[in-house]
Write a structure and sequence with these properties.
931 residues, D-Maltodextrin-Binding Protein, domain 2, 28 helices, ABC transporter domain-containing protein, transmembrane helix, ABC_transporter-like_ATP-bd, ABCA2/9/11_C, ABC-type transporter activity
Length: 931
């Protein structure tokens, strides 16, 4: 095994490689990177447009340095008021019991500036209460009223009243004070004065505003709009970067890229530090773009404050991790925006605000409000870096800008540490989980205790039912199981054993299915592995075969730490797979070629191997040479600089095989490594695997029986979660094959003579062994001889060789049946056992039109209800079965109906079908040994 670095040097090497990987991916995904960089400019432009639109529509007063004077005019006609009922009154007055009041009102009517007021345009009442009652019962009849109260001969008081409801007509707002109330007040005061001083008294009143700066007429100014919108738009910019972050991390999880790196020995600390470093650089660039775009659009926040301020705000982009990036980003943005508005309304000094102002969105809104400055003062210089710990001129100041920085940093580290913790204890596709208090275990920090089993947040499996452990009926499998159990009980450590699987079991719990009408049902648990016992010897290749769903990939996932174990254990070079420390040690000494290629499409083949070599811990000086040699071994030197996304399926598999062989691992696990390869490449990879056996153990899974036959030193076949047979290729063929295969080739090229010779040979084999040719051509015949005929085979072949020239046979070849036959027989037998245990039935439609319900897998079936005088025992058929793509048994045909022999005793199925249709007959099972 090559010398690998470890500890801090490996951490630094992995960190550099991962940051370099992120940089290359970003540089090659130009469109996404450009969008991320330009996003601040786009959002700032939208902010600028919205802010300018609001400023144009705001009600504001212009600056007024030398205000002009305006002479108050006479009482206007009531018809000039917006939305008045007709007939209307110019004004209404009370106090008509006073002679002096009558006189004053008459003077007002006669001396009104510009026009006299007729008597039908004025209405009088005795008291103010009567006026109010009239106004309530008949509103909108007059614009203003005046109330007189004579105190004595020299004193008379009055009060004026108007409808101050704001009305707008044709885009013009009516001002009832200046239009009706002031003219009425001036007329009343003028005529009261003249009643004491005489009619010659001149009375002219003018109005003049105070000089003023520009000021808002409503409740909000332009700066108020900025203070409300700035937190939302800046938070949107941070969330845009946040979406890119969680999308990148989620993509690596979805494509199992992190899983592949973990299997190679990646430190979690290196992984997160690399992302932290890279995203910090991205956020720095995004922050500078935000600042520059703010300066371009001349926002005071960016013109009068320090550059470091906006960078600190964007630290909130580091919070949270999610596997659904856009959904999580939307909800975080929505909740953050609500928190911003809530915090601005409540304020940091309230009891509830104390908790809100520990969240980044609230802190962002508060800090921006402080940086904008006081909009009522001319000197809106914001806050300089030196003044960050001081409160602005505000009596309500509770949090300074320095407090905001401290809280942002504090919350960042809190979220980051929580992310690390839950990444280790929550089940995920990245590997086995750690105990809830794993960080309190000293063994975790010192890297010892690889034999101590542990469980994570879902480590307790007491609620998951255990599979029925039925001891294997195969003698080789049973012997292997007993050997492993004896070694476990005696604590014997065999140095020649690389992997020892000890009763490994994996059960996936059932899922809760919710139906309509509030009904729910939980599906049955699925037992993927049912107590596997196995020794994998060093310097050998163990080939694990099985149909889809047999448990092969689940077994490998358990050995590599991808899937947690329900029961049992496995020891890999002295380390338990149920220990987090043990799994860390195992990953340093294994190489894995997964079932599906786990590659980055934008990285080249050379860059992949360089990255994996750095993660594996190869010496930096040797990485370049090792990568070059690995590419040459798998014949990818010419495509080393080509991106993996452009590779064919076979090239991607070769790259995965090269990755598995990096670092000279003690154990190599290859999950269908040659899938998709052409025959030449497949043969070349076989040579690589064969040469890799020396000094290490190899576990290989494949669907190619030829590959298993060529490479496997020992072969095991799994089906339905159990190991069904175990041994060398020859032993499996001799025990589970259909028998022997005899190939005959004929020497005579004359077709007539050949036909005669073939007929003679077929008759000889039929008479001697009772077999017919399985395959036949012009010059060849192939016979399959059952194992039961083995005792007759020697005598028959001797006789056949003596008559070889008579039969015109040029060559005789005798061999065992292929491994394909063994595989199909084992898979079929497992399916039969499962069907029998589950009591499954299918309907067989006979050629005669009769339908029969028979157990799945039954070969000979007697049909109930067919007894008659001609066939007193009824009739029977032989059912032909085959397996579909999923491995399930299905009927392919049946023999003609024939009478049931007298010596045969058909039996009812173990579990007859329920609710059998009266038009369908029940099939009775016949034991083949009775025929």
């Amino acid at each position: 095994m090559a010398t690998l670095i470890s500890g801090t040097p490996l951490l630094v090497q992995q960190w550099r490689a991962l940051v370099n990987k992120n940089m290359k991916i970003a540089s090659r995904n130009k469109r996404a990177t450009l969008i991320q960089i330009l996003a601040p400019f786009i959002f700032m432009f939208l902010f600028y447009v919205v802010e300018k639109t609001l400023s144009l529509s705001s009600w504001s007063l212009p600056e007024l340095k030398a205000p002009p004077s305006t002479v108050v005019q006479g009482i206007p006609p009531c018809e000039t008021k917006f939305y008045v009922k007709r007939p209307c009154f110019d004004f209404v007055w009370s106090g008509n019991s006073s002679r002096r009041a009558h006189d004053i009102v008459s003077r007002i009517m006669a001396n009104n500036f510009g026009r006299p007021i007729s008597s039908n345009k004025v209405k009088s009442f005795g008291t103010p209460a009567e006026v109010d009652a009239w106004l309530f019962n008949d509103p909108l009849r007059c614009p203003a009223t005046v109330h007189f109260a004579e105190k004595n001969a020299t004193v008379i008081s009055y009060g004026v009243q108007a409808n101050f409801t704001r009305t707008v007509k044709g885009g013009i707002a009516e001002n009832p004070t200046m239009k009706f109330l002031v003219p009425l007040q001036v007329a009343v005061e003028r005529e009261i004065a003249r009643s004491f001083l005489g009619d010659d008294f001149q009375w002219t009143v003018g109005l003049k505003e105070f000089p003023r700066p520009a000021a808002p007429m409503g409740n909000y100014s332009v700066d108020d709009n900025f203070g409300i919108l700035a937190p939302v738009f800046l938070f949107t910019i941070t969330m845009f970067a946040f979406l890119f972050q969680i999308s990148a991390i989620a993509l690596e999880k979805e494509q199992k890229l992190r899983q592949a790196m973990n299997i190679m020995g990646l430190y979690d600390s290196a992984y997160w530090l690399s992302w932290l470093t890279w995203e910090s650089l991205v956020i720095l660039v995004s922050s500078l773009c935000t600042i520059f775009s703010g300066m371009i659009f001349r926002f005071d926040l960016f013109l009068h404050n320090s550059f470091a301020t906006a960078i600190a705000f964007l630290l909130s982009a580091f919070i949270g991790k999610s596997s659904s990036a856009f959904r999580a980003g939307f909800w975080i943005f929505l909740i953050g925006a609500i928190l911003q508005f809530t915090a601005q309304v409540i304020g940091p000094d309230s009891k509830k605000g104390r908790y809100l102002y520990f969240l980044p969105p609230s802190l962002l809104a508060h800090a921006i409000g402080m940086l904008i400055g006081d909009p009522e003062t001319k000197n809106k210089h914001g806050i300089s870096w030196k003044e960050r710990a001081k409160c602005p001129v505000d009596s309500n100041c509770v949090l300074t800008l320095n407090d905001v920085y401290i809280r942002l940093i504090y919350t960042f580290f809190c979220w980051f540490l929580l992310a690390l913790y839950f990444d280790n204890v929550v089940p995920s596709p990245n590997g086995t989980v750690k105990p809830l208090l794993y960080f309190l275990n000293p063994r975790y920090w010192i890297g010892r205790g690889g034999n101590t089993t542990q469980g994570g947040i879902c480590g307790h499996n007491g609620s998951i039912p255990a599979p029925d452990h039925n001891p294997s009926t195969d003698e080789d499998v049973l012997e292997e199981e007993n050997t492993v159990k004896w070694q476990m009980s005696s604590n014997e450590v065999d140095p020649n054993i690389a992997v020892q699987v000890r009763g490994l079991a994996k059960t996936f719990p059932g899922k809760l299915i919710i139906r309509c009408c509030c009904g729910c049902r939980r599906t049955d648990p699925f037992h993927a592995i049912k107590g596997l016992y196995l020794n994998v010897v060093k310097d050998q290749l163990f080939c694990l075969l099985g149909p889809n769903g047999a448990g092969k990939t689940t077994t490998i996932n358990c050995l590599t730490g991808i899937t947690s174990v329900t029961r049992g254990d496995a020891i890999v070079h002295g380390n338990s797979i149920r220990s987090s420390v043990g799994m860390s040690n195992i990953r340093k000494m294994i190489g894995v070629c997964p079932q599906f290629d786990i590659l980055w499409n934008v990285l080249t083949g050379e860059e992949h191997l360089q990255l994996f070599a750095c993660i594996k811990g190869l010496q930096p000086a040797s990485i370049k040479q090792v990568v070059k040699k690995s590419l040459e071994e798998v014949r990818l030197s010419d495509s080393a600089k080509v991106r993996a996304g452009s590779y064919s399926g076979g090239m991607r598999r070769r790259l995965s095989v090269a990755s598995a062989l990096l670092g000279d691992p003690k154990l190599i696990i290859l999950d269908e490594p040659t899938t998709g390869m052409d025959p030449i490449s497949r043969r070349h990879v076989w040579d690589i695997i064969e040469n890799a056996k020396r000094g290490r153990a190899i576990i290989l899974t494949t669907h190619s029986m030829e590959e298993a036959d060529v490479l496997g030193d020992r072969i095991g076949i799994m089906a339905k979660g159990r190991l069904r047979c175990l041994g060398t290729s020859i032993r499996l063929k001799s025990r589970f094959g259909t028998g022997f295969v005899t190939n005959l080739s004929f020497a005579n090229t004359n077709s007539t003579q050949n036909s005669a010779n073939k007929e003679a040979v077929k008759a000889f084999f039929k008479q001697s062994l009772g077999v017919s040719p399985k395959e036949e051509s012009n010059a060849f015949l192939t016979f399959v001889i059952p194992r039961q005929k083995e005792v007759l085979l020697k005598r028959m072949l001797g006789e056949f060789q003596d008559r070889q020239r008579e039969f015109g046979v040029a060559d005789i070849q005798l061999g065992l049946t292929t491994l394909d036959e063994v595989f199909l027989n084992i898979a079929r037998q497992a399916e039969l056992e499962t069907a029998a245990s589950e009591g499954r039935f299918v309907t067989l439609d006979l050629a005669s039109g009769t339908s029969v319900k028979i157990p799945v897998g039954a070969r000979y079936v007697a049909i109930s209800g067919t007894e008659n005088a001609q066939n007193p025992r009824g009739v029977m058929v032989e059912v032909y079965w085959e397996q579909d793509d999923s491995g399930a048994l299905c009927i392919s045909g049946h023999s003609p109906e024939r009478p049931v022999p007298l010596n045969v005793q058909p039996t009812l199925p173990v579990a007859p079908p329920k609710n059998l249709d009266r038009h369908i007959a029940l099939g009775l099972v016949i034991d083949p040994s009775q025929l």
